[in-house]
Amino acid sequence: MTDSGSAAARVLARADELAEHSARTDGIERSYLTPQHTRVNAISAAWMREAGLRSWPDAAGNQCGRRTIDDDDKPALLLGSHLDTVPGAGRYDGILGVLVAIEVADRLRDVDLPFALEVVAFGDEEGTRFGATLLGSRALAGSWNDAWLDLQDTDGVTLREAATTFGLIPENIHTAARPRHSLVGYLECHIEQGPRLEALDRALGVVTTIAAAERRMLSFRGEARHCATPWELRHDALLGASEAIVAIERIARDQGSPATVGRIRVEPDAVNVIPGFAEWSLDLRDGTAAGRDATWGLIRHELHRIAVERGLDLEVTSTHVAPEAPCAPHLRDAVAAGIGSTGDADPVELVSIAGHDAMAMAELTEIGMLFVRCKGGISHHADESVREEDVAVAIDALEAAVRHLAAQHAAEQG
Ligand code: GLV
Ligand code: MN
Ligand code: MN
Fold first, then answer.
1. Alpha carbon distance 383, 108 (integer Å)
2. Which of 30, 132, 176, 295 has the most CB atoms less than 10 A away?
3. With contact defined as beta carbons under 8 Å apart, do 122 and 80 qualify?
4. What is the DSSP letter of 23?
5. DSSP characters for 127-155?
6. Is 335 left (phi over 0), alpha (psi -120 to 50) or beta?
7. What's the pLDDT score for residue 12?
8. Distance in Å, CA 301 to ligand 3 centroid
9. Segment 6-30, tens digit of pLDDT
10. 77, 187 contact by CB (below 8 A)
């Protein structure tokens, strides 16, 4: 087996090992500040140490690693992604990027670079436990908001309580923030989570921009009544929500903005009671914040119309908002050069509809992303799958991208 081949095999075996650390046995679920999070941090810390990094958990529960040969005051290039998952996840979303980064750090452990090299395994990218998203990367990027400490999970546990149980000091989470001058950039390797690379028969792609996103909780309040109530006296919140959700699909399709309603809750949730309350989530994305906002404007107009027609009260709460995050031209070039070194001289460029830690990092430093083909474009599902040979070229490409950047920096420094 070639060196790349054995490294790729190790990455896949490690992804299998991390998949064992799940809150459920019928699929993978690993959320922020859970016992599973503690365990995968400890395991990845050991792998970081084997790769020649010293490793520490930061104040937000991100597991970090830095080459032992790098001085503390040297600005660093960060390679990373996340170890948390959605419920019913696959084993590569986020995880692949952390494991590939560890392999690259291992290969470069003794290489003289004009910057320090770090790996970071973020604790929360998915945001499925507390509603707000990118919590780990936002803490490191300096955009942590202490108001999030009062957010609750579905069991009523607050983020503050979960952080304390995890061993963090809630009031200190914001100290995970890195100073701007301490970084030279952030590079993330991630599965594509779409079908385009597979359709184009390419293993790897260069990300140009990460789409703008916004998440909201929407609700209609009507009147809970006996199911004998005649139609003309009903104010059924679930019928309103159903009409709204179908309208969201129609409008978002017309506008070309991916929209997802992934969660719905009804009260009182009984077979013979007209639902008096319905609450549902909306995740809305678009290549630009302006496009996203235009689509939301049309959706909001329709929600108001439905509310008036059905005699319902509408409430809208924003839980996450992120503008589009363009990748920096020189980091795009570095990723393209990295892919070029693997034999693909004209790499495919892709906009990422999926969100990534890089979005949060873009507020702090320049970002670049490398995408890896995944089978059928399937992600957020147990069938997520990558080819070993694609992982092998991803490791080669990310290493070459770092070396390309190093040469660029060295040339600039003269
Ligand atoms: C994360 O996977 C997201 O795109 O929401
Ligand atoms: Mn994901
Ligand atoms: Mn991800």
1. 33
2. 30
3. yes
4. S
5. -TTTSS--HHHHHHHT---GGGGG-B-TT
6. alpha
7. 98
8. 32
9. 999 999 999 999 999 999 999 999 9
10. yes
Q: Residue 4: how many CA atoms within 13 Å on its side-chain side?
A: 14
Question: How many residues are there in the chain?
Answer: 414
The answer to whether 251 and 196 are in contact (CB under 8 A) is no
For the record, the structure tokens of 311 come out as 């005699």
State the residue for tokens 């790996």: 119
Query: Which residues face 258 on adjacent strands?
Result: none
266 forms beta bridges with: 278
- Measure the CA–CA gap between 134 and 356, rounded to whole angstroms: 8
User: DSSP assignment of 284-334, as one string?
Assistant: EEESSHHHHHHHHHHHHHHHHHHHHHHT-EEEEEEEEEE--EEPPHHHHHH
- Which tens digit of pLDDT belongs to each residue from 47-73? 999 999 999 999 999 999 999 999 999
Q: Which are the contacts of 304, defined by CB distance < 8 A and separation ≥ 6? A: 314
355 touches ligand 1 (CB under 6 Å): yes
CA-193 nearest atom, ligand 1: 2
Q: Which residues contact 227 (CB under 8 A, 6 or more apart)?
A: 272, 273, 274
Amino acid at 309: E
Q: Rounded to whole angstroms, how far apart are CA atoms 366 and 361? A: 8
Place of tokens 């995408």: 371
Ligand approaching nearest to the C-alpha of 97: 3
Name the amino acid, one letter, at 115.
Answer: F
Q: How far apart are CA 303 and CA 93, in angstroms?
A: 33
User: Given the CA of residue 133, which atom of ligand 1 is nearest to it?
Assistant: 5
pTM: 0.93
DSSP 301: H
Could you tell me the two tokens for 213? 């996103």
Residues 145 and 156: their CA atoms lie apart, in Å, by 20
Residue from 125, 126, 127, 177 nearest 148 by CA: 127
